[in-house]
């Protein structure tokens, strides 16, 4: 392994493998689990014995309608709020949002976040055991954003949630937040759709193509069946993350923050060293590879590419005509991956008087939806009708 990058996360090398993510037997931190049984998939077939990992905050009322669903993005997880812990590699990605008196006030709201179908943090995904006890790997079926939402609805049934006061998500989470009021109009009061889109664009699919290719061309990919080999395609996954991370930030931010600076102590002008921006990308590559699974990355990326609320529904306008929930659509002005025009298009076709569009002024690009906690928190609080 000497010729492969070393990864500095404490989770990078675990149980003799480089496969990132949560595995049966690992510490559970705040995770809870529900078995929801078999799930019929949009593109055909049935996924048997689906397990969902989730976290929750606050208390569900007797009517089951004070619930708020938080939807994580591609490499996020159910740990929206709280510190990192054993069994939980990252602190909450919106740490400080949820709690008594906070933007999402748990004196009033029952907040739930689940790990997505196909992921690697405890909900069934390609690294989970199939019925024969070995990892699904290449046998894991093609899943869509709608399948992910169907799984969340089955979780809601088990938790006795009758209606969500709000479904909130950014990026891939925003894809689920817009699918929810279309698939289950009677179960959603409002949706907050951050830095997202009604359909994956050609440009977004294009950025994903070299990411998937990088993973699949890693010799350790083994067609997706590497889980029992003791090693994983971490180089391919790392390249995928580096490509993706650039698209998550704005050109302006990178220019003003890193410029042409050399990484301290390194000489990029023929000395074999790195520019600071290269070092920064390496850092994020290492962190992601330490906590995430390549198979999940491929499965979830392909499900993002499938996203199109108009598919099989007569197009965008016809799909949105089903929506009775209030849609709060939020774009980041510097987002080059999910540009503002996509949120404007969603707002244009959403039912009149049932949507509003906010354009956040942030230098951070697509990741602005993760970083601008106070702006996002105020929007969520407002969506819930709180002062
Ligand atoms: C919903 C979800 O998907 S969330 C899941 C969590 N998301 C992620 O992890 C995505 C990857 N991470 C990110 O995109 C970002 O870190 C965010 C959005 C979480 C936070 O963004 P920011 O606060 O702007 O952090 P930023 O991107 O500047 O990264 C800071 C890190 O880069 C490191 N760094 C900065 N400059 C350099 C450099 N020149 N060389 C090496 N490392 C560097 C910092 O030391 C810091 O390290 P740490 O996070 O290990 O403490
Ligand atoms: N940084 C986020 C952005 C994707 O939208 C993630 O990794 O999930």
Automatic annotation (TrEMBL):
Active site (catalytic residues): 171 (nucleophile), 335, 366
Disordered, as annotated region: 1-20
Pathways involved: Amino-acid biosynthesis; L-methionine biosynthesis via de novo pathway; O-acetyl-L-homoserine from L-homoserine: step 1/1
Highest taxon above the source species: Bacteria
The protein's Enzyme Commission number: 2.3.1.31
Binding partners and assembly: Homodimer.
Protein's name according to its UniProt entry: Homoserine O-acetyltransferase
